[in-house]
Amino acid sequence: MNIQNKSFYLSAEEIKEFQTAGLEPEFPTDLAKPLRDGMEKYGLFAPEQLAGRTFPIACIALEITQRCNLDCTLCYLSDLAEAVKDVPLFELERRIEMIHAHYGDNTNIQITGGDPTLRSIPDLVKIVEMIKARNMRSALFTNGIKASRKMLEALSQAGLNDVVFHVDMTQERNGYKSEEELNKIRLEYIDRAKGLPLRVMFNTTVFEDNFREIPMLVSFFADNAKSIDLSSFQLQADTGRGVLRARDAQLITQESVMQQLREGTGLDLNYDYPLIGHSDCNKYTSIMVSGKSRTVLFDDRPFFNQLFKMLAKVGDNWAEPNIVIRKAILKSITNPALLWGGVKFWFKKAWALKAGLMQGKGIHRLNFFIHNFMDAEKLEFERCETCIFMVATADGPLSMCVHNAKRDQMISKPSRDRNGKIIWNPLPETLDKKNLPLKKLKGRLRGMADNKRRVSAKKIN
Ligand code: SF4
Fold it and tell me: Cα separation of 300 and 291, whole Å?
C-alpha cells in the first residue's frame, strides 16, 4: 500500500469513531484471541511472534492523573490535561477490574499520568494493592522528581513490581544541557531504588537534540546493567500538547535508532527475534552483561524456538527472569534436545562473558525496547488493530496511539455504570474550556497565550 496515499491513514472522523474494546472481553475463555486474530489478519503471527502467544497485551496504561510537574517539549498529554480531575479510587478500581477481565493474571499495568507521584502516597499504595489483589503486575511511570525513597519503599512494600523513570532532554530540567549531564539524575534515581525489590527501567524520548547521544546513553545503561532491567527509547511523535512537532524523518527512524543501539553496546544486535507486536511499532532486543563484557542474548534461534514453543503460555509471569529460567531448566531436564541446546547456549554465553566472569562479576540481562508511536494525524489502521500497548479508558481498553489522537475527548468523558448512569465526571462543573486559567496551560496552549500577552503588551507600550 502506498504510504503517501492519504486514505492509508485514519481520517479525523474514523479516529473519533474508533471504538474501545468495551467493558467486557469478547472471548472470556481465550483472552489472547483478539490480538492473535489481528496479528493473523495482517500476516504477523510468525513463530517468533510473542504477542498473542505469551500475552494478550504487552501492557496497559492506567492514567490516575493528568497533572504533571513538568512541561516536556514532546508531551503526549492534551490541552485539557491540567484542568480535569484526578480519577478517584472507586473509578480506578472499576478500571482495574475491567483490565483483569480483558487480559487476566500477570497483566502489566502502568500506573501513569501525567505524573502519578502527584497523588498522595496512601492513594498510590491503595492502587498498587488493588492491582496486586487481582494477581496483576504494576509499574510506576514517573519523571522521578517526587518519587522519594519513602514513596518507593511504601510502594514496593505494597507490591509494586517496577519503577520506570522518564529522564531526557525534552524535560528541559534546569542546569542540564545534555543527556550525559542527566546521567547524574539517573544515578540518583538508581540509588533511590537500591535494595528494594523493584525492577528499574528508564524511558528516553528520541529527538533531534539527543539522537547523537544515544550510543553514550546505551553504554551508560549497559555499564549499570546490574541495577537496570530495561531501557526504552520512544521516537518523537507529532501528538499531544508538546511544542516540538514532527520528527526529522531523515534522522530519526527505527533503523537509525537501532543502529545507535548497536553502536552503544558494541554488539551486532538483532531485532527480528523474538518479535513483540507489529514491527513498525516495536523493536526489541536483549543483551547479557558481565562487568565490561557484553553479548547478544537471543542469537540461538533453534534453541529459543524450541524453548518458547514449550514454555509459551498466555497468562504466565514472563517478567521475572528467575521464574522463566527456573521453568526453562525444569523443561530441559525432561527434554534431552533442549538440555543439550541449553548446555551449548550457556557455554557460548559464558565464553563471550569470560572477562567479566573471571573478575567475579555476575551476569545481568538488559532489555532494549524501541517504541515508534504514530503521529496523531497519521494513524495506520493495521497498527491500531494490532496494538499491544493500550490505555484503560472509562469505556474499556483503547490503543495508546488512538487515545493520544483524541485525548481531550477521552479524558473528559464521564464514567457510566452498566445502566448508563453517570458515576463520575472528570470535568469540574465550572470549567470554561476556551478560557482556561493561565496556570493550567501547558505546551502549545501556553505558548499561544504567552504570544497573545506579548502582542497586547507591545500594543499598550
Ligand atoms: S501504541 Fe501505537 S505504536 Fe504502540 S503498539 Fe500501539 S499502535 Fe503501535
Answer: 23
CB 199 within 8 A of CB 271: no
Report the nearest-CA residue for atom 5 of ligand 1: 387
Q: Which contacts (CB < 8 Å, 24+ apart) does range 87-93 have?
A: 87/63, 87/424, 87/426, 88/424, 89/123, 89/126, 89/127, 89/130, 90/423, 90/424, 91/394, 91/415, 91/423, 91/424, 92/62, 92/64, 92/127, 92/130, 93/130
Burial environment of residue 40 by CB neighbours within 10 A (0 to 12, 13 to 18, 19 or more):
middle
3-state DSSP assignment of residue 328? helix
Best probe residue, ligand 1, of 389, 404, 410 (max atoms within 8 Å of C-beta): 389
Residue 171 grid coordinates? 524535560
Closest residue to atom 3 of ligand 1, CA basis: 373
The pLDDT value recorded for residue 459 is 62
Grid cell for residue 125 = 499504595
Taken in order of first residue, the domains within the chain and their CATH numbers are: 8-416 (3.20.20.70), 430-460 (no CATH)
Mean pLDDT of 445-453: 68
Q: How confident is the model at residue 310 (pLDDT cuts 50, 70, 90)?
A: confident
- State the average pLDDT for the chain: 92
Q: What residues contact residue 313 under an 8 Å CB cut-off, 6+ apart?
A: 54
In three-state secondary structure terms, 98 is: helix
- Joined together, the cell numbers standing for residue 377 give 494525524
Q: Is the pTM of this model over 0.90?
A: yes
Sheet holding 364-371, edge to edge: 293-296, 282-290, 364-371, 230-235, 199-206, 162-166, 137-142, 108-112, 59-63, 389-393, 396-399
Residue 354, φ and ψ in degrees, nearest 5: -55, -35
490505555: which residue's cell? Answer: 391
Residue closest by Cα to atom 8 of ligand 1: 281
Closest ligand 1 atom to Cα of 380: 7
| Helices within 312-416 (DSSP H only) | 321-334, 336-352, 354-358, 381-385, 400-405, 407-411
Going by alpha carbons, the residue nearest to atom 6 of ligand 1 is 387
Ligand 1 atom closest to 282 (CA):
5
